[in-house]
Amino acid sequence: MSVQLARLLYQPELHFRFAWRKPVARLNCGLLAGGVAGAMCWGAAMGSHVGRAHVWITLVKMPLFLLFTLALCFPLMHIALLVSGVNARVSQTLTIALSGLSTMAICLGALSPVVGLFCVSAPIPSMASYLNLYVLCFCCGVVAGLSGLRVLSRGMKSLGQGRVGRALLLWAFIYQFVGAQMAWVLRPWIGSSYGVDGYSLAHGLSGNFYMGVWAVLMRWLKEMGAMA
Amino acid sequence: MSTNEESASSQSQLAGAVAKSNPMRQWLRRWEGDEFRLAGPLSVGNGLLRAQGAVARDLLGSRGLNTYIAGCGIITVFASLLYGAILGSVNGAGQVLYAALKFPVVIVGSCAVCLPSFYVFQALTGARLTLQQALASVLMLGAAAGLILLGCAPIAWFFSVSTSDGATTFLGLMHAVIIALSTTFGFHFLARTHRYVAWKYGERLFDGRVLALWFVLLVMVGAQMAHFIGPLDSGRGLLETERGFFLAALLDT
Fold first, then answer.
1. What is the pLDDT of residues A85-142, one digit of tens each?
2. Euclidean distance between CA atoms B94 and B37, whole angstroms
3. What is the residue range of B185's domain?
4. Do B162 and A73 touch (CB under 8 A)?
5. Residue B211 belongs to a domain
6. Mutate which of A74, A83, A218 to test chain B, going by most B C-beta atoms within 10 A?
7. Min CA distance, B93 vs chain A (Å)?
8. Which of A79, A106, A191, B93 could form a disulfide with B151 if both were Cys (CB 3.0 to 4.6 A apart)?
9. Could you read off the pLDDT of A33-46 as tens digits, one per residue?
10. Which residues of chain B are within 8 Å of residue A184 when distances are taken between CB atoms?
């Protein structure tokens, strides 16, 4: 498995060339395992801000977040790939998606000690440190996401002709659109409604990410109008 | 190398350069290379996604049209049934069955209502289209849209179950965008089929302007039928209809 993951990180082209030569089931299991390990490290690092049971909860939630989002998006992602002219089988689409996702999760896992340090050492409860940690996690997420997109692009190109750029944009949009709501459902990540441990599905299912963003935007605009 | 050979070589190089610089040529080349063996109605979806060029050639040559009609019909009904159930789930479990039954009626009904106008106006403008080809074309639009609806179904379901009652505007907007995207994809397939046939055979399977105008008509008919049958109206029974113009209802909301 370590050879597969090393090949994925160092030489994505070679990784995909090997992948298309033989049945991909074993390779997919390896990618899944690598991705889950990376995501768990990242989850534990985020949970360490609050500590206690929250570490274990986010450790479990992070791989679930990535995999549930992939499960929901996969049919549309496969269709997007086909209509962009990349003629892939379902198993090939899964391999490409898992390769991108694993790369992203491994990058997040590699950054988790840094995030973990900041999370453990940030003052609590403090709104300022909470927001700073969010910005740090967002930046790490962008770096990891770009690395994942790079591997996705190589994977799509390895299948031959087609409008890879368009397919890549569609994949990124679909995964982000669903991922944002999934993250909302599985919240909290960094904080934990100070004093309340654990996770509540009822709390997760209340509201909607995009409506929440809209409400915050409207509040800002109103406050800016009042200031003006 | 003789002068003729040199000129042919430079012409092919020029054609290649034009083809590379022109994005339309790229999809035409892809469609030209598409191969698809029709292996029953259930394989039609595969053809619509992977080998649109082969499907367009089959449509023009009237090959396996009955299988295409059956396959596209099954996909359209199944996809709209599933998506209808998801639409209904916004208004509680009771509406799931009603919406699942009403939404296919809206989709298939709109196609049926618009089929005669499609055939007659295409024929009037000089398109070479039989009634069977017209039926297959309209159902292909429905099936292509249905495939996108099927792809979006898990995402729409997830947003429906994870969004509280206060965000119905968001859900309505999301469903509207998904339905608009899927319908546009269906129309895009027919428009490309028209351009491909014109490019490859120099023939007019459809008239482009009539196709565009007819699509506007189809959207209006779909909206009116949705307003009349009301798959999303939680206050209505299964067979209860409501008279009125969809645009007025839209402006009211």
1. 888 999 999 999 999 999 999 999 999 999 998 998 888 878 888 888 889 999 999 9
2. 42
3. 40-252
4. no
5. yes
6. A83
7. 17
8. A79
9. 999 999 999 999 99
10. 162
